[in-house]
Design a protein that fits this description.
Elements lengths: L4 E3 L6 H4 L7 H18 L1 H12 L10 H7 L5 H19 L6 E6 L2 E9 L2 E5 L8 H14 L3 E6 L9 H9 L4 E4 L2 H10 L9 E3 L4 H10 L5 E2 L7 E6 L5 H12 L6 E6 L2 H15 L5 H9 L2 E4 L3 H11 L3 E5 L15 E4 L5 H6 L25 E9 L1 H17 L3 H16 L3
Amino acid sequence: MITDINIEPARHSFENLSSRPKKDAKQLNTIIETIYDQVARDGDRALKDLTQQFDNCTVKEIQVAENEINNAGKNVSDELKSAIRRAKSNIEKFHTAQLSNTIDVEITEGLRCMQKSVAIERVGIYIPGGTAPLFSTVLMLAIPASLAGCKEIILCSPPDQAGNINNVILWTAQLCGVTHIYKLGGAQAIAAMTLGTATVPRVAKIFGPGNQYVTAAKSFAQHYGVAMDMPAGPSELLVYADETCVPRYVAADLLSQAEHGIDSQVILVANDTKFVDAINIEIDKQLQELPRREIAKEALVNSKAVVLNEVVSAFDFINEYAPEHFIIASETPERYIDKIVNAGSVFLGNYCPESAGDYASGTNHTLPTDGWSKSYNGVNVDSFSRKITFQSIDKRGILDLGDTIITMAENENLQAHANAVKIRLMDLENKGV
């Protein structure tokens, strides 16, 4: 159950209540910098040593061989293949709708401005393995990358102790157009894609969730000119339960996130303590049936319940917390939509579990955590492309706009900027235009 229950907390305490479990930042950064230095110095040898150290397995070849990928499907059930194909279809449908059209606007006579999307040529995607190999994340990252038109999609995922990547991850990667797969996990995988080695190519941008080490390593990659999708660390869920919620549904949703890992966090916000009590009873009941109950129990230690009777106060807290996943457990969720400011992905109503978005509804489950939904959105097709702008100015356009440019440039004391326009205007004047 959730034991940390906060009844009608004061507004000034909302920021403190929104805190997530943290690892010492200084120690974490030291570890990440050491890993980067080792990979920069020793390349593939470092990757193999770090895999032995952190994943407790010996990897002879870092790259997954083609025959391993081709044979992976033999170990995936037809039922699961069918489910993955259905999810792929839904995700493709939603993400295809995000494809941006070229913008072409005539600003004034003789002046046109344009914008088009250009895919990032080589991207890296990180797929967590460990206690729960997330083959669904392959769908969420490889599909929009393929739709955007990325030429190379580099996938890294931690191997098991036998030195193999999960067969479902391999099969799904092949299904979604991943071009290269490597047996690498953790911060060393991020360092490899950032720096490049003899075997692993350097990428331009890295995507994917992970633990605090992976998130810190992605942030560190930016020192080397490699972009990241967003800060996406341990998974989290907030549920707002009003008087029309179904307690056993809410409990199931909270546990669905708690089982991700011991560093996950779930938050329950309710308008009455009786709903918290009812949901806690259901949590204890359902917990006993879960194979990953020990992991969920530890995650619940980091979790909280907040009771706020006033809807305005409740959503003030929710927006301060800025959840990765946000469920509105209500028969009338639409009445709360306008109050949502900060959230990664929102699930509306008693019949909309967060696990639908995790797998097959069509939206993306790679989302900002740790309050970063205040400034980041989740992954979409545009995440894998850049916007390039163009402008076209003819004689009429420069005659019309020239004085404006000159005035602004001269007032910024940038005379060369102004002269670039003046010489064109003088030429046109000499030609009698």
